[in-house]
UniProtKB/TrEMBL annotation:
NCBIfam families: PRK02391.1. It is an enzyme of class 3 (hydrolase). This is Protease HtpX homolog. Its cofactor is Zn(2+). One of its GO terms (molecular function) is metallopeptidase activity. It comes from the Bacteria. Zn(2+) binds at H141, H145, E217.
Length: 312
């Protein structure tokens, strides 16, 4: 794939490489420890590898299915396709497939293993609430994820945590249903060791992935604002979407919370300052502050970013 015109972010690239390297070390140690602790681990590793491959190759279809999204043609959604066409031409990148999710939740996400196999999806709730310029800012944000290749990285990194859970379940049931002699005095010790190792691996993976996810959102905001040269418009969209999400019943938001890492803004944000440390996104205030700084750097007229949406 040719390099797009989205502003490269070397810090994002370095963080992605470092995260995958550290996760790789953690999981090599994890598997090595479990080989010592468990018997018949080969089957579990094979299953986990197969699931990871499926997640990588079919992540776009899985995400669309889960979010009730459907691919749309230019005839069905001419405005949406027109915005994507303009942005892809400006960024000099392949046009992804375009999808719409019939949800009132105002949001958008991008998924896919690379720019040639990517999907950008918006909800009907988002299109109903934003004007064309704001929609352009959100879509530029999502396309930057594809251009920076962080969609594939976060997909793989997030899925690695599933391996720990899968092996824990395997260990539990193998001990429960006679994988070892029930009278073996080492059974309880082995089980506790597996649980301890798996819990540690999950905790390390969780923190690494969350840190990468928060940074990649700031990087996408910056890249989108630089491409469109309108940081205040992106801030307006961000403020408007975040405000409207806050009015949606919590029970409806919880159904989409599993996709927070891929959304433009989280469906259900953290409620406390401590919870922000484990969030997939920076706080709204942090994102608006970064866009305000960029607006000042660009000398953008029109006041502070987000000012237009302040009363929304």
């Amino acid at each position: 794939m040719m390099r797009s015109r989205f502003e490269p972010d070397r810090q994002l690239t370095a963080r992605m490489v470092a995260t995958m390297f550290l996760l790789g070390l953690v999981y090599v140690a994890f598997i090595a420890a479990l080989i010592v602790l468990l018997e018949s681990l080969v089957l579990v590793v094979v299953i986990a590898a197969a699931l990871l491959g499926a997640q990588y190759w079919y992540s776009d279809r899985i995400a669309l299915y889960a979010m009730h999204g459907r691919l749309v043609t230019p005839e069905e959604q001419p405005q949406l396709h027109g915005v994507v066409d303009r942005l892809c031409a400006a960024a000099d990148m392949p046009k992804p497939q375009v999808a719409v999710s019939d949800m009132d939740l105002p949001n958008a996400f991008a998924t896919g293993r690379n720019a040639d196999h990517a999907v950008v999806c918006v909800t009907t709730g988002l299109m109903r609430r934003l004007d064309t310029e704001e929609l352009e800012g959100v879509l530029a944000h999502e396309l930057s994820h594809v251009a920076h290749r962080d969609v594939a990285v976060i997909t793989i990194a997030s899925f690695l945590g599933v391996i720990a859970g899968l092996i824990v379940r395997f260990a539990f049931y193998s001990q429960l249903f006679g994988g070892r002699n029930q009278r073996d005095q080492n059974t309880a010790a082995v089980f506790l060791a597996v649980m301890g190792v798996s819990a540690l691996v999950y905790a390390i993976s969780f923190l690494l992935i969350r840190a990468l996810s928060r940074y990649r959102e700031l990087a996408a905001d910056r890249a989108a604002a630089m491409l469109t040269a309108k940081p205040s418009v992106l801030a307006s969209a961000l403020t408007k979407v975040s405000g409207d999400i806050a009015r949606i019943p919590t029970r409806d938001l919880r159904t989409a919370q599993a996709f927070n890492a891929f959304f433009f803004t989280p469906a259900l944000g953290p409620g406390t300052a401590m919870a922000h440390m484990f969030s997939t996104h920076p706080s709204l205030e942090r994102r608006l502050e970064a866009l305000a700084e960029l607006s000042a750097q660009l000398g953008e007229p029109g006041g502070e970013p987000g000012g237009e949406a302040g009363g929304v």
